[in-house]
Prior knowledge:
Layout: H1 2-28, H2 46-52, H3 93-119, H4 123-149, H5 160-170, H6 174-202, H7 206-236
Helix pairs in contact: 3-4, 3-5, 3-6, 4-7, 6-7
Amino acid sequence: MKKILILTSVVALAAGCSSYHRDQTAYNNPNPYGTGPYVAPNQQGAGAAALTGHGGVNEPGYGTTQYNPMGAPAPAPYEQGGTVAASSGQLSSHDTTFVNQAAEHGQAEVRLGQLFVQNAQNQSLKDYGQRLIDDHNRLNQQLTQLATQKGVTVPTAVDMHRQRELDHLASLSGKDFDEKALKDSIRDHERDIRTFQDAAQNSQDPDVKAFAQQALPILQDHLNQARQLEKTLNSSST
C-alpha cells in the first residue's frame, strides 16, 4: 500500500510539471491561428511567406503598402477615382483636336496666300493673298502661344493630302490658277468656319473658346472677300 501511494504521487507530480510547461510555452508564443508556429508582426518576411503563402508586407497591418481586399494593388493617390492626367495637360480631347486642326489649316492658308501673291494675274487677287498671309500668320502665332500654355504641341506643316493640292495649284498659271485658287479658298474657309463655330460654342476651355470666337469674324471676312472676287472674275470672263 505504501508503494502504491508513492507511485501515485510521482505520477501526479509529473503531470503537473507537463501542464505547467505547456502553459508557459503558450504564454511565451501565442498563435492566434491555433496551429503551427506563430510569427510576430515584425518578423513577417521571407520566412513568413514560406509558412503562410503570402509575402507579409502587402497584408493588412504590415509595412506601408496599401491593402486592397479585392487582391489588386491599391491605386496611387493621383489615380483615385479613376482620374488620370490627360496627355495633353489642361485640354480635353475635343479642344486638343480643334487646336491641332486650326494650326494645320492655318499653315495651309498662309501657303495659299503665298501662291496668290506669286501666281495671280490681277492685283486684287494678289492683295487678297497678302491678307491671307498677314491674318493667318497672326492667328497662327496666337494659337501656338495658347497651345504652349496648355501643353499641346501643334503641327507646323500641312497634311500630305492638302500639300498635294497646293503643289498642283502651284503648277497652274493664268486664269486656271485664279479660278482654282479662289475655289480652294472658299472651300477651305467654309470648312474652317464650321470648325471654329463648333469650338466657339462647345469648347470646354475658356481660352480656346475665346480664341475661336475672336478668329471667326476674320475667317468670315476672308470667305466673303473670296466669294466677291470669284463673282468679279466670272463676270469679267463672260
